[in-house]
Specification:
Number of helices: 9
Radius of gyration: 18 Å
Oligomer: single chain
Structural class: mainly alpha
Largest sheet: 2 strands, antiparallel
Length: 210
């Protein structure tokens, strides 16, 4: 989003496997100890503002710049409902698919099937929408920006994009955007991690305090 808008930004990596997200300074910015979070030093009235939750960040930046979110009521509502579809469905359900397929300390077949099947259903919803629309809400918007990162990990969710041709076309088009390439390059420069059950990294990500 920041690259799409051409805004200057500085990345401060938070190592969630080492427990950086529980530090007092970070909790002032993100009280739910999750990433991403941002600080805009040129916020409303010229004063700094911190924002957590990706949907809230995207809305703030869209409204700050007047870009990637329509102002006309019907078009804006359409974009917002697909953003909420990501926040209420795609993110939580695909995140559970990731957990039970890759990170759970024991293989629980019911959970694997439950969230893999739900991922398949959500992919179908998007594929049908994209049969008649170039992007989720018509024009490229914050709804697409919120959803794309989850679809990058389709194999983690037991999905094959070849089964969803409209979604694959959408995915390939977004992946080719220069701003998306910039964002992925930033991510590739940060630490890679793999949390295995029983390790300190796993506990920092998944135990009760996390």
């Amino acid at each position: 989003m920041l690259a799409e808008l051409g805004l200057h930004y500085r990345v401060l990596p938070i190592d969630i496997t080492s427990g950086d997200q529980f530090g007092a300074e970070f909790l002032k910015i993100s009280p739910n100890n999750k990433i991403p979070a941002i600080v805009d030093h040129d916020g409303p009235g010229g004063n700094p503002i911190s924002i957590f939750e990706s949907g809230a960040i995207l809305l703030y930046l869209a409204e700050k710049t007047g870009k990637l979110l329509p102002t006309e009521v019907r078009a804006r509502t359409n974009a917002l409902q697909w953003l909420m579809f990501q926040m209420g469905g795609v993110g939580p359900m695909l995140g559970q698919a990731h957990h039970f397929r890759r990170y759970a300390p024991e293989q629980i077949q019911y959970a694997v099937d439950r969230y893999t099947n739900e991922a398949t259903r959500l992919y179908g919803v998007m594929d049908r929408q994209l049969a008649n629309s170039e992007y989720l809400a018509g024009d490229y918007s914050i709804a697409d920006i919120a959803t794309f990162p989850w679809i990058r990990l389709h194999r983690w969710q037991g999905q094959d994009l070849q089964d969803f041709p409209n979604l694959k076309r959408w995915f390939d088009a977004i992946k080719a955007r220069s701003a998306v390439e910039e964002g992925l390059a930033v991510m590739s420069e940060t630490k890679r991690w793999e949390a295995k059950p029983g390790t300190a990294s796993w506990k920092n990500m998944f135990d009760a305090k996390a």
